[in-house]
Amino acid sequence: MTAPGHTAAGVRTPVTLINAFSVPMTQQDRFLSRWKDNARLMASAPGFVGARMLRAVSDQAELTFINVAEWESGAALDQARRNPEWLASIQRLINDPELDAKARPMVYQSVIDVTPGDELP
Q1: Residue 10, pLDDT score
Q2: Cα-to-chain-centroid distance, residue 1
Q3: Which of 10, 27, 56, 95 could bond to 61 as cystine, CB 3.0-4.6 Å?
Q4: Domain membership flag for residue 6
Q5: Which domain range does residue 34 map to?
Q6: In a domain, 34, yes or no
Q7: ∠ Cα 92 98 101 (to 5°)
Q8: Can you give 17-49 as a three-state secondary structure string?
């Protein structure tokens, strides 16, 4: 289930999972329902910091949803992904015959953080 570059098991510092989804407009409510089932499982995982789902403002957007999930470490994310309940939840989303969602997940590390009033060199 893990794609190349999609795992961060060796990373002991905070990571962010960003997953961009293309979902047909008529399937968006069903997609969000499935995603919430998965998010409930992630929320109880050790090392989970938080997540949010963003929806494109424009109906014309190719990437209709963006999920941003923060983890204490890549290792914590990797461990959470091994949970059989989580894997089953993902399979339900992927194998749902009424959903034609395409996901583009990747794990990232912050390299620059900016807050109000910060001056960057």
Answers
A1: 80
A2: 14
A3: 56
A4: no
A5: 15-58+72-108
A6: yes
A7: 75
A8: EEEEEECCHHHHHHHHHHHHHHHHHHHCCCCEE
Blockwise average pLDDT, block size 10, the chain, 121 residues = 53 93 96 95 96 96 97 94 93 93 94 93 82
pLDDT at res. 8: 72
Report phi then psi at 37, rounded to 5: -60, -45
Q: What tokens were used for 3?
A: 């794609």
Look up the CATH number of the domain holding residue 26.
3.30.70.100
Helix (H, G, I), strand (E, B) or coil at 85: helix
User: What pLDDT shows up at residue 2?
Assistant: 40
Among 80, 101, 89, 85, CA closest to 17? 80
Output the pTM of the full model.
0.86
